[in-house]
Amino acid sequence: MLKLYFGSVPNFLSTALFLFFTGYFISTVKKPEGTVKWKKASIITVLIGTAMSAICGIKDSTSADPAVSFKQMNPSLAMLCIMGAAAMILGITAGICKKEKISKRIFFILSFIILAKTIIVEVLRIVKHFN
Predict the structure, then answer these.
(1) Cα–Cα distance between 90 and 43 in angstroms, integer?
(2) pTM assigned to the model
(3) Total domain count for the chain?
(4) Surface-to-core class of residue 100, CB atoms within 10 Å of its CB (0-12 exposed, 13-18 middle, 19+ buried)
(5) Domain span at residue 80?
(6) What is residue 45's predicted lDDT score, i.e. its pLDDT?
(7) Which residues are CB-contacts of 31 (< 8 A; sequence separation ≥ 6)?
(8) Are 121 and 68 in contact (CB under 8 A)?
(9) What angle do CA 128, 114, 69 make, to 5 degrees?
(10) Quick one: what percent of the chain has pLDDT higher than 70?
């Protein structure tokens, strides 16, 4: 089971990025209100999420038995693509948005998207591992 998360360079990088995101999220949320630059936090979050998605794609494309098949459209891939597109749109919106209140909401939505995508992919990997 540890090989799923540390067995290769892409596995290690995706695990490290998720842990980095978790730490970044916690440290951002714990800062006193008024000290967080939500626009910057949203942009950093979308960049982390994009990097995580890219590494996930590398991880699955180099695998002999990928958890997410990129050869044909399937429900999990469609869901991941929709959430990825929504994250990109939100990231662009955060970049041009002037209101911190909206950027704060975008930060939390992006964080939820990252978490949801990670859960989907990891559940697929764990199921694939035990089959």
Answers:
(1) 9
(2) 0.85
(3) 1
(4) middle
(5) 3-130
(6) 95
(7) none
(8) yes
(9) 35
(10) 89
